[in-house]
Amino acid sequence: MFTLEQAQAMVPKVRDELMAMQGLKRAIDDLRIGLARIVEKATGNGHVRSEDELERQRRRAEELVRQLNERLARINDWGVELKGLDEGLVDFPAERDGRVVYLCWRLGEERIEWWHEIDAGFGGRQPL
Fold it and tell me: Where do the domains of the chain lie?
C-alpha cells in the first residue's frame, strides 16, 4: 500500500521505466514488421535469402522482450501496477476511507491527482 506521498515519490522512477519500456516496445514492433516481411518474401519464392539475418533479427527481438519483461518485473516489485503500456498508465494501491483503492497516474501528468475504485478503472477516475 502506498500513501500519496510515497506514490508521488515513485513517479520519477516509474516515468523512466515506462519511457524505456515504450521505446523497447516500438523497437519490438519494428522488428516484428521486418520479420513478417522476411517471412512473406520466403513464402513467395520458397526460401529465405538470408537465414543469418532472420536469425539475427529473431535473437534481437528476444533480447528486447527480455529487457521489457525485466523492467516490468521491476515495476511490479515496487508494488506498482502497470495498466497500459501504450498509455503509460499505472496504479498505486492505497487506502482511502478504510478500503483499498488505486491512486492513478498516467505518463505526461506532473503529479498524482486522481484515484479510482479497484473495479472502476481509468474511466472511474476521480480527483483527489
Answer: 4-127
Predicted TM-score (pTM) of this structure: 0.85
Radius of gyration for the alpha carbons in the chain, expressed in angstroms and rounded: 20
Contact 17, 90 (CB under 8 A): no
Chain centroid, CA 128 distance in Å: 25
pLDDT tens, residue by residue, 66-87: 999 999 999 999 999 999 999 9
Question: What grid cell was written down for 95?
Answer: 487506502
**Grid cell in block for residue 94:** 492505497
Q: How many residues appear in the chain?
A: 128
Q: Which helix (H) or strand (E) holds 93?
A: strand 89-96
Contact 72, 81 (CB under 8 A): no
- What is the phi/psi pair of residue 118, to 5°? -55, -40
